[in-house]
């Protein structure tokens, strides 16, 4: 049987990983500054993570959401403590798109409205409503097309206000930092004004923190830099360090109704064991603080390289542009310098490393870049 060939692949296969490195079969070591699309938060195969997942696998891998599962409550308690959202409610799912799908659906249930406001260059996932709120017609099938989603420019508060004033929108959805869109940071003032305009018009504010959350920007969620408090927050990627999982944080003002949302696999035993280990490691190893410090250093050093344009980011969510092809540079970084990075569009390089990287790895990358760009 052939695989459905939808991915463009680099001809390399990592077969093992440890911390912020991955290894090919012949033992060659590669520095991972991409974390497999921002997924590896606490480092590859962290010993505590491996132990907890293996232990849970030996006990009970799965049972349905029709019986008690205290692992979910333990995870919720820890997440409340670490994120600062202890009064919020947690709904567990399996991926980022599914988290956004449920967030938007919930906003529609709560408000009785069917329209959504989203932002140009956004990426919210590939399921039905999530992809409709994603500003990329190439990944929307005819069945996804809808008049229910409107787009305005990020940071254009006047345009957002004008739309929201119609009182038609169930939710406005915005990424903490646009990731796939090329590391575009909404201004703190914009997020605050958006929150105010949404609430004035009975619209819920959804923060998509799937890529920018979980400590990546030096705060638990990127929107915490702006001091806003969304009604709904979506999470995935780093939440379980590679175990497929997503989550929705829901304001205490929103009342749950039995059967309103549901999933077979969401919040399963293995996923909860993985996600709890992630939060414990993040807390004990101070990885959010490390992301802030290493990110600041890396941004500073990148800004000193004259060939790089518009170096931008927060913490360990960093982007920069080059004159030539980002894909060529990334290929050379892998095969000549043994460093994995990410892309976003033809000229942008995106860095989303495990939150464990430090000054040593930052220096290694800076030296590799200088060598390849000279
Ligand atoms: C901001 C954001 N939202 C949603 C998603 C979709 O997540 P998933 O691929 O887990 O469905 C992504 C994935 O890249 C993302 O970056």
Overall description:
- The chain has 374 residues and is an alpha/beta fold.
- It folds into two domains: 47-284, 3-Layer(aba) Sandwich (Aspartate Aminotransferase, domain 2), CATH 3.40.640; 286-350, Aspartate Aminotransferase, domain 1, CATH 3.90.1150.
- 35% of the residues lie in helices and 18% in strands.
- It has helices spanning 35-38, 47-59, 70-83, 96-111, 128-132, 157-164, 188-200, 269-284, 287-303, 326-335, 359-373; strands at residues 14-18, 21-24, 29-32, 89-93, 115-119, 149-152, 169-175, 204-208, 232-235, 246-250, 309-314, 317-321, 339-340, 342-343, 348-351.
- The strands form three sheets. The chain has a seven-stranded mixed sheet with strand order 4-10-9-8-7-5-6, with helices on both faces.
- Strand 14 and strand 15 form a beta hairpin.
- Helix 6 runs parallel beside helix 7.
- The longest helix has 17 residues, at 287-303.
- The chain starts with 13 loop residues before the first strand and ends with a helix.
Extended strand count: 15
- How many structurally independent domains? 2
What is bound: which ligands? pyridoxal-5'-phosphate
Q: Helical amount among residues, as a percent range?
A: 25-40%
What's the CATH architecture name of the largest domain? 3-Layer(aba) Sandwich
What class, by secondary structure content? alpha/beta
CATH topology of the largest domain, what is it called? Aspartate Aminotransferase, domain 2
Quick one: CATH class of the largest domain? Alpha Beta
Which strands sit side by side, in order, in the main sheet? Answer: 4-10-9-8-7-5-6
The CATH superfamily name of the largest domain is Type I PLP-dependent aspartate aminotransferase-like (Major domain)
Radius of gyration: 20 Å
Distance between the termini: 45 Å
């Amino acid at each position: 049987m052939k695989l459905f060939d939808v991915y463009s692949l680099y001809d390399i296969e990592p077969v093992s990983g440890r911390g912020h490195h991955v290894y090919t079969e012949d033992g060659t070591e590669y520095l991972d500054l991409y974390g497999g699309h921002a997924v590896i938060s606490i480092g590859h195969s962290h010993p505590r993570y491996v132990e907890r997942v293996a232990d849970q696998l030996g006990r009970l891998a799965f049972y349905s959401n029709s019986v008690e599962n205290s692992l979910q409550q333990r995870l919720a308690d820890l997440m409340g403590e670490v994120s600062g959202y202890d009064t919020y409610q947690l709904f567990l799912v399996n991926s980022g798109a599914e988290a956004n799908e449920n967030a938007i659906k919930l906003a529609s249930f709560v408000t009785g409205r069917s329209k959504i406001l989203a932002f140009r260059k956004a990426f919210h996932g590939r399921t039905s409503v999530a992809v409709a709120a994603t500003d990329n017609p190439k990944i929307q099938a005819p069945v996804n097309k809808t008049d229910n989603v409107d787009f305005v420019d990020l940071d254009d508060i006047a345009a957002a206000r004008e739309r929201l004033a119609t009182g038609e929108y169930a939710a406005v959805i915005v990424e903490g930092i646009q990731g796939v869109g090329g590391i575009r940071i909404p201004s703190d003032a914009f997020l605050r004004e958006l929150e105010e305009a949404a609430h004035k018009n009975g619209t819920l504010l959804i923060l998509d923190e799937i890529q920018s959350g979980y400590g990546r920007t030096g705060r638990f969620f990127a929107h915490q830099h702006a001091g806003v408090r969304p009604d709904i927050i979506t999470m995935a990627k780093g939440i379980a360090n590679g175990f497929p999982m997503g989550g929705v944080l829901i304001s205490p003002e929103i009342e749950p109704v039995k059967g309103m949302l549901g999933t077979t696999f969401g919040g399963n035993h293995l996923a909860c064991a993985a996600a709890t280990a992630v939060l414990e490691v993040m807390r004990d190893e101070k990885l959010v603080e490390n992301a802030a410090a290493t990110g600041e250093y890396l941004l500073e050093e990148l800004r000193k390289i004259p060939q790089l344009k518009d170096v931008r980011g927060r913490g360990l969510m960093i982007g920069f542009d080059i004159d030539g092809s980002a894909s060529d540079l990334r290929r050379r970084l892998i095969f000549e310098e043994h460093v994995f990075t990410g892309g976003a569009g033809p000229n942008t390089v995106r860095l989303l490393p495990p939150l464990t990287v430090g000054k040593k790895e930052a220096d290694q990358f800076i030296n590799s870049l200088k060598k390849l760009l000279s």
